[in-house]
Amino acid sequence: MADPRFFPAAGPTRLADIAGAAGASFEGDPDRLFTGVGPLQAAGPDDVSFLDNRRYAGLLAETRAGAVILAGAFAGQVPAGTVALVTPQPYLGFARAARLLHPPPAPVPGIHPTAVVAADAVVGEGTEIGPHAVIGAGARIGRGCILGAQVTVGPAVEIGDHCRLLPHSSVSHAILGEGVVLHPGARIGQEGFGFAPTPDGRFETMPQLGRVILGDFVEVGANACVDRGSQGDTVLGPGTRLDNLVQIGHNVRTGRGCVVVGQAGIAGSTVLEDYVTVAAQAGLTGHLRIGAQARIGAQAGVMNDVPAKTDVIGSPSMPVREFWRAMAKLKALGGGRGGEGKAG
């Protein structure tokens, strides 16, 4: 259940409005009121729940939820008193309903007295600047933004409308679109990892003279890092999502709607086309091209280009079917050794 101390409810909210947000049809009183959301086993009569995995269908008959968002195949299994909100995409419908019932905090317009804002910085109407935030010279902050405690925005940075920069995140050498979210500790625009060795064994840092461009509605997870470009720009396309602890090297470019999961790393100048997924702890070497809708498996080591709509796994990575055939042969080989190598 959503703890009201941390997730205040916007409700009570009418059933008809919840169904509209979820894109669901229903039978029942459109004016019935709901106050929150919860899982099937814990939700009460004033809560909305959902079912998106048939593994949990057994919980449906026992739920006390007032309404359940689900696919049509399960609509006949809801108990008496529970409204079936039927939609072809229950998980998406529930996400939208939950956001309606528990919306993110709205900005509280104003600049905290401990914040440091450069005299020539521009702060848009309705924006909230939190305690000890620092806004550099010539920076431009859009309307309706939230900049949390100890956020740092470097000189000349541009931030679009309705962005949320959560505590301890920092931005430099960057232009952010509308609705961008930086989670706590995210780092945008720092110097990339580039250097030239000298004849006497030292390293000379290569100047990193590019920017970071974050498209509309990009989200960057906690403690994730996006390096600025060296000569060109590092670009994350609209809707791209980075999980926590992701590393994006200089001059990486992603298309629309890419997803990079926790602890994955993408080396410099690699290009991800639209809707690529990179799973947890995968590593991509530099100067690659990953085709649209390709999927990189967890802990994969990608050293070559990946064609569009291809799933790869393993290190070095290979198409999924090849990987599992290789694993089957390896297991068979190991099983035919007569127990050699066993301890004891």
Can you walk through the features of this model?
It catalyses: a UDP-3-O-[(3R)-3-hydroxyacyl]-alpha-D-glucosamine + a (3R)-hydroxyacyl-[ACP] = a UDP-2-N,3-O-bis[(3R)-3-hydroxyacyl]-alpha-D-glucosamine + holo-[ACP] + H(+). The active site is at residue 250. This protein has 344 residues and is an alpha/beta fold. Helix content is 12%, strand content 26%. The chain contains 4 helices and 39 strands. The strands form 7 sheets. The protein has a 12-stranded mixed beta sheet. The chain has a 10-stranded parallel beta sheet with strand order 8-11-14-17-20-25-28-31-34-37, with no helix packed on it. A 6-stranded parallel beta sheet has the order 9-12-15-18-23-26, with no helix packed on it. A hairpin with a 4-residue loop joins strand 38 (311-313) and strand 39 (318-319). Helix 1 crosses helix 3 (90-101). The radius of gyration is 25 Å and the shape is flat. The termini are far apart. The model has no long low-confidence stretch (mean pLDDT 95).
CATH superfamily of one domain: MurE/MurF, N-terminal domain
Largest sheet report: 12 strands, mixed
Provide the spatial order of strands within the biggest beta sheet: 7-10-13-16-19-24-27-30-33-36-38-39
CATH fold title of one domain: Udp-n-acetylmuramoylalanyl-d-glutamate--2,6- Diaminopimelate Ligase, Chain: A, domain 1
Can you count the beta strands?
39
Please identify the structural class as seen in this structure: alpha/beta
Distance between the termini: 51 Å
Query: What CATH architecture label of one domain applies?
Result: 3-Layer(aba) Sandwich
Helix tally? 4
The coarse silhouette is flat
Oligomer: single chain
Global Rg: 25 Å
The residue ranges in which pLDDT falls below 50 over 5 or more consecutive positions are none
Classified by CATH, the class of one domain is Alpha Beta
Helix content: 10-25%
**Averaged pLDDT, please?**
95
Q: Percent of residues in beta strands?
A: 25-35%
